[in-house]
Amino acid sequence: MINSLSQELQYILLQALNKTDDSIAIFDQYDEIAYCNLSFANLFGFETVDMIVGKSFSQIISNSYYNKTGVNIETNDIEAWLHTANMKRRSTSHRSFEIDTKDGSWFLITEQLVDEYLFLYATNITASKIQQFELLKTQKQLASLAATDSLTGIYNRRHFYLVANNELIRCQRKNLSASIMILDIDHFKLVNDNYGHSCGDNVLKSFTDRINKELRSYDIFARIGGEEFAVLLPDANKENALDIAERCRKAISDSPFIIDGVNVAVTTSIGMYTYESDADGLEQIMKLADKNLYIAKVSGRNKICS
Ligand SMILES: Nc1nc2c(ncn2[C@@H]2O[C@H](COP(=O)(O)OP(=O)(O)OP(=O)(O)O)[C@@H](O)[C@H]2O)c(=O)[nH]1
């Protein structure tokens, strides 16, 4: 086939190989570079083609590694890295993978064995990689928006049921107790009526902050309704949960919120239920905690019923 290329076409081909931004190299049977274009030399941190031709794969990788140039090689043990890479090279007739470089570019590498020669082709995919990262970032942001309550920043009802359900199942599997608290701000309508809706919003935010301070890092806290909040307390028996609930109740009732210089005193009623060993699901446990919340409300508010 090569023989059928006229000298003129061979010349055109070499010109094209030197003009393209894609990096191209041919390694010989000793894994030394028999040919490469300028882009390939640059990819491995060499300024000219002459500086790289004749070098082995291990030499060009070591050059990148020790001079911190060209291809990004993340390892503390370059010898082990090279050993693994050399095992993979030429293990199949064709393979492709992605690499990144010290300047933040990304390349798709394709290797093709032709007899004992290894033909390497690297395409710059930085633009599509950046798009891919942006998309992932947006997906994460969307997932976070879908999971959180926009006013307080804690989980919303839907996400609470998802996360708390998994956690409850984990507790049940490990024979750990778990408790649910449902907190409802007392007479919250009066806060809105007396001080305005925006003040009410600030009370909800400050309420969330105060409760958060009383919880353990692994408790699952969510706003499940207007002025209603739920907490799953993993690995908390009734006694532990009552301690936490009492701390929360006092954190709200002990001092008023100061909103725009105005003292706004509120209290919270708490319905609690502790799962011990039965096989109840989250829905059932929430219902039982809600019943206890109702009892706390009708029996005077600012109290815990369990
Ligand atoms: N500011 C503000 N108010 C809200 C929000 N969501 C719900 N509310 C208000 O919360 C109030 C809840 O009132 P009710 O259900 O009557 O309960 P309550 O006044 O707290 O009385 P009890 O629960 O019986 O102690 C209503 O006035 C709602 O408008 C919100 O996001 N912001």
Automatic annotation (TrEMBL):
It catalyses: 2 GTP = 3',3'-c-di-GMP + 2 diphosphate. It is an enzyme of class 2 (transferase). Residues 176-306 form the GGDEF domain. Keywords: Nucleotidyltransferase, Transferase. Its EC number is 2.7.7.65. It comes from the Bacteria. Signal peptide: none annotated. InterPro entries: Diguanylate_Cyclase (IPR050469), GGDEF_dom (IPR000160), Nucleotide_cyclase (IPR029787), PAS-like_dom_sf (IPR035965), Rev_trsase/Diguanyl_cyclase (IPR043128). It holds the Pfam family PAS_7. CDD domains: GGDEF. This is diguanylate cyclase. GO terms for molecular function: diguanylate cyclase activity.
